[in-house]
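To the team - aspartic acid complex, inputs and output below.
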Amino acid sequence: MTAATSVRFAHRHLLGVEGLSPDEITLLLDLSESYIKQSRAADKKATLLRGRTIINLFFESSTRTRTSFELAGKRLGGDVINMSAEVSSVKKGETLIDTAMTLNAMHPDVLVVRHPDSGAVKLLSEKVNCAVINAGDGTHEHPTQALLDALAIRRRRGSLQGLTVAICGDIMHSRVARSNIHLLTAMGARVRVVAPPTLLPACIDRMGVEVFTDMRAGLRDCDIVMMLRLQTERMQGSFVPSIREYFRFYGLDYAKLEVAKPDALIMHPGPMNRGVEIDSEVADDIDRSLIREQVEMGVAVRMACLDILTRNLQSNEAAT
Ligand code: ASP
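Output:
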């Protein structure tokens, strides 16, 4: 039994990393470890969520997050339903709240929601009786991404404490950056953000990070380099002069990586744009790139989140 198993996860929903304590984060990461083992075994199926219904409600496209939530729910024995806004009543003009109320009437146990607007998942969580997991809301948070990133780092480095992590690229439009900043700073890592001035949100320094506009300065002596995609779908107008120029100054290649620690690890949440924010060879470097491991960790972390939130449902159901 790890120390973290005595910690209570006192949240009905998982809407963000902000507000989670270091103990709660550790609890989720420790629990994820056991699910890595289960996912690597020949028999991947458990019965923990038997009888439970999980609805994946995605108002934005997704490959990794949606698939891994589906796998996570199924590996725990739950019934998983996938709904995408493209084919739902949202297309017919139904409001978010009406969609939430409709689904709520079918008694799901967990709603996993992705939405293009920051704050939409929280709003929805206030209207339903089940647990809600934020699978990414606008530029706000993507908590399970930060948890899986933390798990991947912790497995390679033993701890997050004292590491220097450089998050590079489109910080302005990135929910991944925000969730990672909350998590990494809470766990005692030093966080740097590296981006052109046009892709840095105002007051980012108030989040407890060091800000760099030069890649070499930002990457110097860091342990982890986390690259981000240019999230053009969230941009109005152009934020970089040209892709070629962006890659020249901010794309991760071996020349820029040289100033980081010799064993610095490379991460990317995906989807990756090769030749834009990251050089293909660097992305595929089997010794240094954690990108594939991040995907694997995604399933384990999502199993842990479903586990912990349904345990909380159980204690509420017992109390009523
Ligand atoms: N998959 C991540 C997200 O949903 C990162 C990205 O899309 O670039 O935010």
